[in-house]
Design goal:
With about 130 residues, the chain is mainly α. The protein has one domain. The chain is about 65% helix and about 0% strand. It is built from four helices and no strands. Helix 1 packs antiparallel against helix 3 and helix 3 runs antiparallel to helix 4. The longest helix has 28 residues. The termini are far apart. The mean pLDDT is about 85.
Length: about 130
């Protein structure tokens, strides 16, 4: 005769924390934030310079035009940010299986910022 047995969990939980794909999304967020600051720095440095007291004293002529080479670098970094945010969102959508998994709003924000920045730079300077 078979006796009624209470089945307990006989398997060990071998997970040692989040896997590669779970850590991939915050890594993409950090990369996107770094790229947005780099691209903003390029745009800031590419802007025409304003006269300061030092310029007037030493007769320096500040640059009165946009530096297109820095704008090109900002365009490249915004494209890299677009690629990183799309990659992170793709992993986020495919990883979205549990109730606790959420779509990263920051990656969506970075996607919108990068598309807007690419469009602005393209139509303002590169067309």
């Amino acid at each position: 005769m078979i006796k009624d047995r209470v089945v307990t969990n006989q398997f060990k939980d071998r997970r040692k924390g989040p896997d590669f794909w779970k850590r991939f999304i915050p890594t993409m967020l950090i990369i996107c934030w770094v790229l947005i600051w780099v691209s903003w720095t390029f745009v800031y440095l590419a802007m025409p310079q304003h006269k300061t007291i030092v310029d007037l004293h030493y007769d320096f002529a500040p640059r009165a035009y946009w530096d297109i080479s820095l704008i090109d670098k900002a365009f490249i970094t915004m494209n890299a940010m677009l690629l990183a945010s799309v990659l992170g969102l793709m992993v986020n959508f495919f990883r979205h299986r549990r109730k606790t998994d959420k779509i990263s709003r920051t990656l969506i924000f970075m996607l919108i910022l990068s598309v807007g920045g690419i469009g602005f730079l393209f139509y303002r300077f590169l067309s």
